[in-house]
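Section 5.1 Outputs to date
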Amino acid sequence: MNTKVLKNGRVIILIIALMFSGFSIYFNGISTGLDLQGGTLVTLELERAVSSDDMEDTVKRLELRLDRLGIADVSVRPWGDSNIMVEVAGTSPEREASVISILEEQGVYEARIDGQLAVSGADIVRVDAPEVRTLRGQATTEWQVPFTITREAGRRFAEVAKGMGGYPVDMFLDRPVNSVIFMHPGVYESLTGSPDQFDITGIDANAYVPITQVQEQFPIERRIGDDIKLLTFTDESEIPLLLEDYVGDKERVIILASEDEVGRETFTQVRDMNFRADREVRAVDEDDYTYFTRVVGLMSSPRLSDDLATGVPATTPSYVITGTSETPEMAREETSSLRIILQSGALPVATNIVGQNFISPTLGTEFIRQVMIAGLASLIAVAAIIFLRYRKVTVSVPILLIAFSETVIILGVASVINWTIDLAAMAGIIAAIGTGVDHQIVITDEAITGSGGDLRRKKSIKKRVGHAFFIIFTAALTTIGAMAPLAYLSLGMLRGFAVTTIIGVLIGITITRPAYGNVAKILLKNQ
């Protein structure tokens, strides 16, 4: 090899970039996308079309939640004005379940005392580390999530809590606001709460407390808020008739029943009345109380202590959400998810999971194998065409080496910035490499053609290569201008293609094209 080539400044920069990219790829690795690595693809539908600002806010909050869950290689991108695509690459079945759980939550937190709002999620300024403990002799694990609210919210809490010592503080997450909930009379009769949850004034907490007595002291209708109405039915034909009084007043209908108890025809009638209708079916091992609290989002109901019911705001308004889980592992998972939701706040618009697909790593491996075969075939085709074009190894080999170097540097940059390489990004790499080979051919043609008998004969090879770079920079700026809107507007997978193409073009015009231009000057000077 010509020693002048290795001593050239541009070539040295290229070699340094190659070494840096190799080290970055080796130590940091390359983040591969869902279609290459496998993972979870979830489609969220917003309850209504939203503005670009609300869409951006929703996407950021979802990204924050997934990031705090410790999930890498996650992509949350808008799709139109009413859908969001969430891609999580390379997750385990357990992590996939955590992702789905986080995405299902809207994150609207409320604490109510006797139905009055005392604290909302917007009031929370800090969420501390959860506490999990298992007491001897108990089959379940207790947990706590401490949090601090604003002083203004602390004053409101003190006003609501005044004189309410001994009452339950009902803590809701995603309470179904403006809803009508239908259930069988037997379910309704057992809803007020499990007696061992509350230290009821004047009653031994360890003694058996009849449900009717609990209902009298803490009626469920008051605790869940005035905007939720509970109705009972014995026959599904009663449901549309009972709803006539609530047309225009409520938005959502929830029916606690299986498909055998309430059929599709009833749901069709309810939706024709412009309600959003949902069916909630009880799990096999769920009792009536657990069934209902799950539906209304009631997480826990700790008793309000007398010292918090004086009406005097606390100096540091800090409170605790409590609960129980079957095992310490389940408690840690539940408290972790709750803490993430409280920290990220409520989503600006309600979402619903309408699609959920899992791509296995095996399928992703097959994608990679096919892409490698296609890349090798393309490399062989390019090498053959270049050799047939110039019939000179001194020209063909540098072009191929520069093209290979450009691929490595693009992957190195992706590794440094943690850019995910998926099929769209790989298409962008191929497009950038194709553009690079085309530009190198322009440089080569300018350098070789200038030695003929035309007017450019009088020009030095430096000027001829300079003319080639004028063409190349013009073409590169045109490509970047065409790709920029796709990258900025985040149009689904097109963004990955556009960003990778722009990165490849920038690397080309700053590192690889100048290096090849200098190589061409040295090798073709006397051609």
